[in-house]
Amino acid sequence: MPLIFDLILLAVSIFWLGTAVTGLTLWRGLSIGNGLVPGAASGIMIVMLLITISKTLRAKKINRQYFEDSFKAINWREMLPLLIAVGCVAGTFLIGMLLTMTVMVFCWLRFLSGYGVRRSALTTAGSMLFIYGIFKLWLQVPLPRGLLGIL
Amino acid sequence: MENFAMLLQGFTVSGTPYNLLMATFGGVMGILVGAMPGIGSLLGCALLLPLTFKMNATSAIIMLAAIYYGNMYGGAFSAILLNIPGDSPAIMTTLDGYPLTKKGMPGKALFTANAASFLGGTIGILILTFLGTMLADLGLKFGPSEMFAVMIFSLSSISWLLGDSPSKGMTSAMLGILVATIGIDGATGMPRYTFGSMNLLSGVLLVPFVIGVFGFSQVMNMMSDKGVDISELSGKRLRFRDAMITRQEAKECAPAIARSGLLGTVVGILPGSGATISAFLCYIFNKRVSKRGKLYGTGIPEGVAASEAANNSAAAGAFAPLLALGIPGSGTAAVLLSGLMMWGLTPGPQLFTDEPEFCWGLISSMYIGNVLCLAMAMLSIPFLVKLISVPAKLLSPIVVVLCFIGSFTASNDMTNIYVMIVGAVLGYFMTKYEYPTAPMLLSFVLTPTIEKNLYRAFITNDGSASLFWTKPITVTLLALTVVLMLVPQVMKLVKRGGARKAG
User: A19 with A73: CB under 8 angstroms?
Assistant: First the structure.
């Protein structure tokens, strides 16, 4: 898996360098262009990543087993917050941020943390009232209200 | 001596009950706003500026200044307890603050942060009192090429943060530059790497990115049984007594606070630098010169002290160019400048002679406000420490809410939420595969200033590179950068040679 992460970073840096050289300018009139800094940084990054990748390749045998072991090593439970975050983004567009967060906190406490309905509801209500008071009432942050326009 | 007499006179202004009330109110608001992820001093001052419409100028600036430095106190709270910096100047506080919390010493981390904030702030205010106008004049000598050299000097300190694998550390630093180049280029005004998205034109904001890299990735780690879990502290009785640092720790922190206080104030005075860059630079500088430099980042009070003293002293330093020259050194100082104009004052060299009551009232109020902030921050420790004894499974969803709302609040834009999620993925995998995150954040913070100043430096010098060897301050700073980068390598070679001879 570290190798895959390195390769993704390498692809990103190659894209950055390519864009800097072909799509942006390195020098413009009397001064630097907008491609010089990203071009130089991505160039250095490519060299550094190649060093890291070559070290990995020398240290471990890269075969099918390596990738299978890499995927087995991932703790998929740790990815759960990411899924929840994506769900919250979708929920924000539908029912607004405050309501989505309220539902998320309740569901998390009830189903992931295993608290009872009463305790989950009370904790959710308390924490969300605090958030509502600070961000909405006091600071008047225009939190997204979603398609339904609630809160 | 004249300044001292004026300062005493200033105390008669700031010591009135109404002004004391304003300083207390500003301090409380600043601490609260600072502790809320994503809001920060800039937004805090901007939000509360309308409250000052009906106040007299002195009371108004006393309140806003208290918000500004109170914010520096509050920013450390969530950085230490939740690994989410309340504001960007507190980013470096997370590096040692949160590990201290994981070791079961949140109170100690908070105590150190508050004490260092107070002492750093006091050093800054003392320098502002006696040398402020002189230093502000010196700051004016820093043009684009000098500022570029200062930033390169700061960036070169990345070499001290690289960790065990220099190639991974350098990759992390370069990644920070890549992320910082997204959006409209501040120098040429041309968009780049926006992937056709209008929302990315304003670039990637530091606060949501940092919330993702540190805060949300932390929640991901908390899900694992093997991962970092502060739930071990659940149910433990954490008392204020346990928060006190030992005499030995105080001795270790003192030099770091002094260094950060002095250097932080100078960085705060420089235009365009501010408390964030000051905290980064001072932390790295202390890591370099301290005997316990290798322990920085593992959770030592000295690391917290280095960062917190720096951001508070920089906040005080930022007032020197603002009052003496009318030049705002940071975004928050720009809001304060607009306030000065709104109240009918003209900041600049004449302000100290035309409005001595206002200037010295403000400076003296900073001494009082700093003491008030310290008292409030210390009193809040027992309550804050209780927060950490909340089980992780109860805390995690609330941290997610703070990550979401904190990121959104940074500019009231959903793009910040996406940035936060991308930052979380990046932070999670970087930590997992032993890429240090600090170099990425340092280069991310410095890149826009470096690029802008390099662009301006060439423009003002008709495209000639001679500015790098004809301007004395630039040459000195660049030479210092080279020396500092070479010294560790030379020392290594000398050590190796010595070992060979001994062998």
Answer: no
Q: 3-state secondary structure string, B33-53? A: HHHCCCCHHHHHHHHHHHHHC
Alpha carbons B75 and B70: distance in angstroms, whole number: 9
Show the beta-strand stretches assigned E in B125-279.
183-184, 191-192
Interface residue B368 vs chain A (CB under 8 A): no
pTM (predicted TM-score): 0.79
Local structure of B218: helix, strand or coil: helix
Question: Three-state DSSP class for A27?
Answer: strand
A35 and B192 Cβ atoms separated by less than 8 Å: yes
String of b and e for A118-136 (b: at least 16 CB within 10 Å)? eebeebbeebbeebbebbb
Q: What Rg, from alpha-carbon coordinates, does chain A have?
A: 24
| pLDDT surpasses 80 at A119 | yes
ipTM of the complex: 0.92
Tell me chain B's radius of gyration from C-alpha atoms.
22
pLDDT over 50 at B130, yes or no: yes
Nearest chain B residue to A105 by CA distance is B397
Rounded to whole angstroms, the Cα distance separating B435 from B428 reads: 10
Residue B397: how many CB atoms within 10 A of its CB?
Answer: 25
Which chain B residues have a beta carbon less than 8 Å from that of A82?
220, 421, 424-425
pLDDT of residue B473: 87
Location of structure tokens 């901007």: B46
* Mean pLDDT of all residues in B243-263: 91
